[in-house]
Design goal:
Shape: globular
Largest sheet: 6 strands, mixed
Bound molecules: adenosine-5'-diphosphate, magnesium ion
Strand order of the largest sheet: 6-7-8-3-9-10
Order of helices and strands: EEEHEEHEHHHEHEHEEH
Number of strands: 10
Radius of gyration: 19 Å
Strand content: 25-35%
Oligomer: single chain
Helix content: 25-40%
Length: 242
Protein backbone atom coordinates (compact mmCIF):
# COMPACT_ATOMS: atom_id res chain seq x y z
CA UNK A 1 0.00 0.00 0.00
CA UNK A 2 1.23 3.52 -0.79
CA UNK A 3 2.45 5.65 2.12
CA UNK A 4 -0.41 7.82 3.38
CA UNK A 5 0.22 11.56 3.07
CA UNK A 6 -0.96 12.02 6.66
CA UNK A 7 -0.43 9.30 9.25
CA UNK A 8 -1.12 10.12 12.89
CA UNK A 9 -1.19 7.46 15.56
CA UNK A 10 -2.56 7.66 19.10
CA UNK A 11 -2.11 11.39 19.26
CA UNK A 12 -2.87 13.06 22.57
CA UNK A 13 -2.75 16.78 23.28
CA UNK A 14 -2.86 17.96 26.84
CA UNK A 15 -2.80 21.68 27.62
CA UNK A 16 -1.33 22.63 30.94
CA UNK A 17 -2.16 25.92 32.61
CA UNK A 18 -2.61 27.46 36.04
CA UNK A 19 -6.19 26.16 35.91
CA UNK A 20 -4.91 22.58 35.55
CA UNK A 21 -4.77 20.10 32.66
CA UNK A 22 -7.07 20.08 29.62
CA UNK A 23 -6.95 16.73 27.83
CA UNK A 24 -8.18 17.87 24.41
CA UNK A 25 -7.12 15.07 22.01
CA UNK A 26 -7.49 11.58 23.46
CA UNK A 27 -5.70 9.10 21.23
CA UNK A 28 -6.52 10.24 17.70
CA UNK A 29 -5.34 7.97 14.85
CA UNK A 30 -5.96 8.89 11.22
CA UNK A 31 -4.45 7.96 7.86
CA UNK A 32 -5.19 10.07 4.78
CA UNK A 33 -4.17 8.69 1.37
CA UNK A 34 -2.96 10.96 -1.44
CA UNK A 35 -5.78 12.57 -3.40
CA UNK A 36 -8.45 12.22 -0.73
CA UNK A 37 -10.87 14.99 0.22
CA UNK A 38 -11.42 14.22 3.89
CA UNK A 39 -13.89 16.01 6.09
CA UNK A 40 -13.45 16.26 9.86
CA UNK A 41 -16.75 17.15 11.47
CA UNK A 42 -17.50 17.97 15.05
CA UNK A 43 -19.22 20.42 17.35
CA UNK A 44 -17.54 23.50 18.73
CA UNK A 45 -14.94 22.65 21.37
CA UNK A 46 -14.49 19.02 20.23
CA UNK A 47 -10.81 19.54 19.30
CA UNK A 48 -10.96 20.29 15.55
CA UNK A 49 -8.62 23.27 15.55
CA UNK A 50 -6.25 21.55 17.98
CA UNK A 51 -6.04 18.61 15.57
CA UNK A 52 -5.64 20.94 12.59
CA UNK A 53 -2.76 22.77 14.29
CA UNK A 54 -0.99 19.45 14.77
CA UNK A 55 -1.63 18.36 11.16
CA UNK A 56 -0.27 21.76 10.07
CA UNK A 57 2.91 21.36 12.15
CA UNK A 58 1.97 24.50 14.08
CA UNK A 59 1.77 22.44 17.27
CA UNK A 60 3.16 19.10 18.39
CA UNK A 61 1.38 16.19 20.09
CA UNK A 62 1.91 15.64 23.81
CA UNK A 63 2.27 11.96 22.86
CA UNK A 64 1.76 9.85 19.75
CA UNK A 65 3.31 10.13 16.30
CA UNK A 66 2.76 12.17 13.16
CA UNK A 67 4.27 11.08 9.85
CA UNK A 68 3.81 13.61 7.05
CA UNK A 69 4.54 12.04 3.66
CA UNK A 70 6.36 9.31 5.56
CA UNK A 71 8.54 11.75 7.47
CA UNK A 72 8.46 11.60 11.28
CA UNK A 73 7.75 15.20 12.30
CA UNK A 74 9.04 14.58 15.86
CA UNK A 75 12.67 14.50 14.70
CA UNK A 76 12.51 17.85 12.86
CA UNK A 77 13.92 21.14 14.15
CA UNK A 78 11.77 24.30 14.25
CA UNK A 79 13.43 25.50 11.04
CA UNK A 80 12.72 22.21 9.30
CA UNK A 81 9.10 22.33 10.45
CA UNK A 82 8.80 25.90 9.12
CA UNK A 83 10.22 24.75 5.79
CA UNK A 84 7.76 21.85 5.71
CA UNK A 85 4.86 24.23 6.36
CA UNK A 86 6.07 26.59 3.65
CA UNK A 87 6.58 23.95 0.97
CA UNK A 88 4.30 20.95 1.66
CA UNK A 89 1.26 22.49 3.36
CA UNK A 90 -1.30 25.10 2.34
CA UNK A 91 -3.62 26.71 4.88
CA UNK A 92 -7.13 28.10 4.39
CA UNK A 93 -8.99 29.76 7.27
CA UNK A 94 -12.58 30.75 7.99
CA UNK A 95 -11.61 34.41 8.26
CA UNK A 96 -9.44 34.34 5.07
CA UNK A 97 -6.46 35.96 6.89
CA UNK A 98 -5.45 38.15 3.95
CA UNK A 99 -3.43 41.36 4.26
CA UNK A 100 -6.31 43.81 3.67
CA UNK A 101 -4.31 46.66 2.12
CA UNK A 102 -2.00 44.52 -0.01
CA UNK A 103 -2.98 43.66 -3.56
CA UNK A 104 -4.40 40.28 -4.49
CA UNK A 105 -1.15 39.35 -6.26
CA UNK A 106 0.99 40.34 -3.28
CA UNK A 107 -1.19 38.30 -0.90
CA UNK A 108 -0.89 35.22 -3.08
CA UNK A 109 2.86 35.61 -3.65
CA UNK A 110 3.57 36.07 0.06
CA UNK A 111 4.35 32.41 0.93
CA UNK A 112 6.99 32.42 -1.84
CA UNK A 113 9.05 34.96 0.09
CA UNK A 114 9.94 32.10 2.47
CA UNK A 115 11.26 29.96 -0.39
CA UNK A 116 14.08 30.21 -2.94
CA UNK A 117 11.70 30.80 -5.86
CA UNK A 118 13.35 33.66 -7.83
CA UNK A 119 11.60 37.06 -7.54
CA UNK A 120 10.92 37.16 -11.27
CA UNK A 121 9.02 33.88 -11.09
CA UNK A 122 6.85 34.81 -8.10
CA UNK A 123 4.38 36.99 -9.97
CA UNK A 124 3.88 34.32 -12.61
CA UNK A 125 3.34 31.63 -9.97
CA UNK A 126 0.81 33.85 -8.16
CA UNK A 127 -1.05 34.53 -11.42
CA UNK A 128 -1.19 30.81 -12.22
CA UNK A 129 -2.59 30.04 -8.75
CA UNK A 130 -5.25 32.76 -9.13
CA UNK A 131 -6.22 31.45 -12.57
CA UNK A 132 -6.58 27.95 -11.13
CA UNK A 133 -9.19 29.17 -8.60
CA UNK A 134 -11.04 31.12 -11.27
CA UNK A 135 -10.43 34.70 -10.13
CA UNK A 136 -10.55 37.00 -13.18
CA UNK A 137 -7.27 38.90 -13.90
CA UNK A 138 -9.12 42.23 -13.60
CA UNK A 139 -8.97 41.73 -9.80
CA UNK A 140 -5.26 40.87 -9.50
CA UNK A 141 -4.14 44.42 -8.73
CA UNK A 142 -7.06 45.25 -6.45
CA UNK A 143 -6.46 45.51 -2.74
CA UNK A 144 -7.86 42.43 -1.05
CA UNK A 145 -10.25 44.49 1.11
CA UNK A 146 -12.04 45.59 -2.09
CA UNK A 147 -13.22 42.03 -2.80
CA UNK A 148 -16.36 40.11 -1.82
CA UNK A 149 -16.12 37.28 0.74
CA UNK A 150 -16.18 34.59 -1.95
CA UNK A 151 -13.44 36.34 -3.92
CA UNK A 152 -11.36 36.74 -0.75
CA UNK A 153 -11.61 33.03 -0.02
CA UNK A 154 -10.54 32.23 -3.58
CA UNK A 155 -7.51 34.49 -3.10
CA UNK A 156 -6.77 32.66 0.16
CA UNK A 157 -6.99 29.30 -1.62
CA UNK A 158 -4.67 30.59 -4.36
CA UNK A 159 -2.23 31.64 -1.62
CA UNK A 160 -2.45 28.12 -0.15
CA UNK A 161 -1.69 26.66 -3.61
CA UNK A 162 1.15 28.90 -4.71
CA UNK A 163 3.85 26.61 -3.29
CA UNK A 164 2.27 23.56 -4.91
CA UNK A 165 1.74 21.86 -1.51
CA UNK A 166 0.92 18.19 -1.06
CA UNK A 167 -1.81 18.91 1.49
CA UNK A 168 -4.36 21.67 1.88
CA UNK A 169 -5.70 22.16 5.40
CA UNK A 170 -8.90 24.17 5.57
CA UNK A 171 -10.49 25.11 8.92
CA UNK A 172 -14.18 26.06 8.40
CA UNK A 173 -13.39 27.58 4.96
CA UNK A 174 -17.04 28.25 4.16
CA UNK A 175 -18.01 29.38 7.67
CA UNK A 176 -18.20 33.06 6.71
CA UNK A 177 -19.78 32.57 3.28
CA UNK A 178 -23.38 32.33 2.07
CA UNK A 179 -24.32 28.92 0.67
CA UNK A 180 -23.94 29.81 -3.03
CA UNK A 181 -20.48 31.30 -2.44
CA UNK A 182 -19.54 28.40 -0.18
CA UNK A 183 -20.50 26.08 -3.01
CA UNK A 184 -18.08 27.85 -5.34
CA UNK A 185 -15.30 27.36 -2.81
CA UNK A 186 -16.16 23.67 -2.43
CA UNK A 187 -16.15 23.25 -6.22
CA UNK A 188 -12.64 24.70 -6.19
CA UNK A 189 -11.55 22.10 -3.62
CA UNK A 190 -13.17 19.37 -5.70
CA UNK A 191 -11.18 20.44 -8.76
CA UNK A 192 -7.96 20.49 -6.74
CA UNK A 193 -8.67 17.01 -5.47
CA UNK A 194 -9.16 15.84 -9.05
CA UNK A 195 -5.65 17.22 -9.70
CA UNK A 196 -4.28 14.96 -6.96
CA UNK A 197 -4.16 17.32 -4.00
CA UNK A 198 -4.93 15.90 -0.58
CA UNK A 199 -7.44 18.08 1.24
CA UNK A 200 -8.47 18.03 4.88
CA UNK A 201 -11.55 20.13 5.44
CA UNK A 202 -12.84 20.92 8.90
CA UNK A 203 -16.48 21.83 9.32
CA UNK A 204 -19.46 21.54 11.59
CA UNK A 205 -21.79 21.73 8.58
CA UNK A 206 -23.20 18.45 7.19
CA UNK A 207 -23.90 20.01 3.77
CA UNK A 208 -20.15 20.73 3.45
CA UNK A 209 -19.27 17.18 4.50
CA UNK A 210 -21.45 15.89 1.64
CA UNK A 211 -18.63 16.95 -0.73
CA UNK A 212 -16.06 14.72 0.95
CA UNK A 213 -14.76 11.30 -0.12
CA UNK A 214 -14.86 10.36 3.55
CA UNK A 215 -15.98 11.96 6.78
CA UNK A 216 -14.71 11.33 10.28
CA UNK A 217 -16.44 12.80 13.30
CA UNK A 218 -14.64 14.18 16.29
CA UNK A 219 -16.43 14.08 19.64
CA UNK A 220 -14.74 15.24 22.80
CA UNK A 221 -11.24 14.62 21.42
CA UNK A 222 -11.92 11.20 19.88
CA UNK A 223 -12.53 10.22 16.24
CA UNK A 224 -15.47 8.16 15.02
CA UNK A 225 -16.00 6.98 11.46
CA UNK A 226 -19.29 7.74 9.63
CA UNK A 227 -20.68 4.35 10.65
CA UNK A 228 -19.59 4.70 14.27
CA UNK A 229 -21.14 8.16 14.34
CA UNK A 230 -24.47 6.84 13.04
CA UNK A 231 -24.37 4.07 15.65
CA UNK A 232 -23.59 6.58 18.42
CA UNK A 233 -26.49 8.79 17.31
CA UNK A 234 -28.82 5.77 17.13
CA UNK A 235 -27.86 4.60 20.64
CA UNK A 236 -28.24 8.12 22.03
CA UNK A 237 -31.71 8.24 20.41
CA UNK A 238 -32.67 4.93 22.04
CA UNK A 239 -31.66 6.30 25.39
CA UNK A 240 -33.67 9.43 24.71
CA UNK A 241 -30.59 11.64 24.65
CA UNK A 242 -31.27 13.40 21.34
N1 LIG B 1 -4.20 26.67 24.47
C1 LIG B 1 -5.19 26.04 25.12
N2 LIG B 1 -5.16 25.85 26.45
C2 LIG B 1 -6.15 25.22 27.09
N3 LIG B 1 -7.24 24.71 26.49
C3 LIG B 1 -7.35 24.88 25.18
C4 LIG B 1 -6.34 25.54 24.40
N4 LIG B 1 -6.72 25.53 23.09
C5 LIG B 1 -7.91 24.91 23.06
N5 LIG B 1 -8.29 24.51 24.29
C6 LIG B 1 -9.52 23.78 24.63
O1 LIG B 1 -9.58 22.61 23.86
C7 LIG B 1 -10.91 22.33 23.46
C8 LIG B 1 -10.97 22.17 21.95
O2 LIG B 1 -10.66 23.41 21.33
P1 LIG B 1 -10.57 23.53 19.75
O3 LIG B 1 -9.58 22.56 19.24
O4 LIG B 1 -10.34 24.95 19.42
O5 LIG B 1 -12.04 23.08 19.34
P2 LIG B 1 -12.88 23.31 17.99
O6 LIG B 1 -11.97 23.85 16.95
O7 LIG B 1 -13.45 21.96 17.68
O8 LIG B 1 -13.98 24.28 18.35
C9 LIG B 1 -11.77 23.46 23.99
O9 LIG B 1 -12.38 23.04 25.18
C10 LIG B 1 -10.76 24.56 24.26
O10 LIG B 1 -11.19 25.38 25.32
MG1 LIG C 1 -12.05 25.58 15.76
Amino acid sequence: MATPVIDIRKVHRVYESAAGYAHVLKGVSLQVPRGELLCIMGPSGSGKSTLMNILGCLDTPTSGTYLLEGLDTAVLTDDELAELRATRLGFVFQSFNLLPRATVLRNVALPLSYTDVPKAERRERAEDALMSVGLPPAFFDHRSNELSGGQMQRVAIARALVNDPAVILADEPTGNLDSATGRMVLETFERLRAQGKTIVLITHDASVAAWADRTVHIRDGRLLTDEEEREAVRLAGERGLT
